[in-house]
Amino acid sequence: MNIALGTIPFGTTVGMQETFAILDRFQEAGGTMLDTANNYPFWVAGRSGDESELAIGAWLAARGNREEVFISTKVGARPTIPGDTTLDSAEGLSAATVARGAEGSLRRLGTDYIDVYWSHIEDRSVPIEETLGAFDELARAGKIRSLGASNMAAWRLERARNVSAARGWMPYTYLQLRHTYLRPRPNTRPAEAGHTLVSDETLDYLAAEPDLTLWAYNTLMFGAYTRPDRPIADIYDHPGTTRRLAVLHEVADELGATPNQVVLAWLMAGGVVPIVGVSTMEQLEEAIGASGLKLDAELRARMDAAC
After folding, report:
1. Does 193 score more than 90 pLDDT?
2. DSSP label at 197?
3. SS3 (DSSP) at 266
4. Mean local confidence (pLDDT), 239-243
5. Peptide bond before residue 41 is cis, with ω within 30 degrees of 0
6. What is the pLDDT of residue 44?
């Protein structure tokens, strides 16, 4: 299954019993990729940011299945001021912070390695060589197996990869950005702090770099494709959205699928790994259904042409 399970609410709004049930079902259905961070969900009152990793670690320990699971976690956006619910006090990406962050994540997850370790945000106050060197030290120590960049501009990613290539360091081979079927208006930004949207330039760059894999978050727009109580964000307020939604619903009806499933299938057909955050078993089953949904060339062309 080429879907990554988003785990932000695990161990908090989703209790441990339900967390274990969701993770068990995800693995049973063939899912292997879990996406977390060392700060989920710090923005909720009373939470430290440890909770998601601790919940996953408890499940791994209970099931003894570490080798069967691909763990993705992140460093850089954990608040340094207790109670801060913004990114104003984010820890950043100094060498010391990267090393300390990895040790904390390894401890909470109960593992001695991370499958893909992400720089969660950009930190332009730190030389990129310092950050990449710290990541490479973790790789040489066997603590991380691959490296990802989350919320990074394409030009910065290119620069980082060149630095790593010149120095023989582990390069970024994963990129994580906000992406979905709907396209935002040009020069708009999401209301959510820290979210970085996929751009046409980014997609063009990815097409030219076959060793780079895009993981997409907020793929289902907080449920806005299917839930009337979740309005579509203002950045998508333009005529193209109306046309795309019409085609999306047409294709969903033709396939006997939900719009959410078609969005996920469309992303996977383009080589993207969609991250799907779930808080109920029903939501998980819908995502599992998307993993077996195939879009032929004609359907993909119709969806791509709507603009």
Report:
1. no
2. B
3. helix
4. 96
5. yes
6. 87
Which segments of the chain are extended strands (E)? Answer: 4-6, 33-35, 70-75, 116-119, 147-150, 172-178, 213-217, 273-277
- β-partners of residue 14 are 10
Q: How far is CA 31 from CA 5, 69, 305, in A?
A: 8, 8, 31
CB 115 within 8 A of CB 146: yes
Backbone angles phi, psi at 131, to 5 degrees: -65, -45
Average pLDDT over residues 217-223: 97
Task: Give the pair of three-digit tokens for residue 44.
Answer: 């909720």
Percent of the chain with pLDDT over 90: 94
HEC assignment per residue over 208-228: HCCCCEEEEECCCHHHCCCCC
Give the Cβ contact number of residue 165 at 10 Å.
10
Give dist(CA 136, CA 211) in Å, integer.
18
**Global model pTM greater than 0.90:** yes
87 has pLDDT over 90: no
Region 150-173: mean pLDDT is: 98
> How, if at all, do strands 147-150 and 172-178 pair?
parallel
Task: Confirm if 87 and 193 have CB atoms less than 8 A apart.
Answer: yes
The Cα 201–Cα 55 span in angstroms is 37
Closest CA to 36 of 90, 104, 128, 87: 104
Burial of 219 (0-12, 13-18, 19+ CB in 10 A): buried
d(CA 145, CA 102) in angstroms, rounded, equals 12
Q: Which two tokens stand for residue 303?
A: 């969806």
